[in-house]
Predict the structure of ATP-dependent Clp protease adaptor protein ClpS.
Amino acid sequence: MGTKEKISEEVLLKEEVLAQNEIVLFNDDVNTFDHVIETLIYACEHTAEQAEQCALLVHYKGKCTVKTGFFDDLKPRCTLLLEAGLSAEIV
């Protein structure tokens, strides 16, 4: 009978954890769908379809994550949303 050798290699992976944040947009009774959609296209660089889907989710679910990324990228985008009269925060 033959002898089987098992060769084990220990692989060490250095994994860098990068903190991702989200902009969450909240529903309100003030802004129109068109205003929300136009603002998402401008502030978050959404396509028209993405912006419309987010607007619908916000309307029916009460909130929606509209952008994910690093805080330094999200901060000015969230500021644009707030300046446009939308309710948003970075989490």
